Amino acid sequence: MKIGVLQFFSWPERRVALPTVYKRALERIEIMDRTGFDAVWLAEHHFSTFSVCPSVHMMGTLAAARTKRLRIGTAVSLAALYHPLRLAEEVALLDVLSGGRVNWGAGRGFSTTEFNAFGVPPEESAARFREAVEIVLRAWTEDSFSFAGDYFHFDNVELLPKPLQQPHPPTWVAATSDPAIDWAAGRGLSILMDPHSSIDDLGRKRRRYAEQLGAAGFTLGNRDIPMARLIALADTREKAADIARRGAAWLVDAYAGPQHQKAKTMHVERRYGGLDPVEFYLKEVVIHGTPESVVDRIQALQAEIGLNYLMCAPLSHDTFMMLADKVVPRLA
Question: Is 192 in a helix, a strand, or coil?
Answer without folding.
Answer: strand
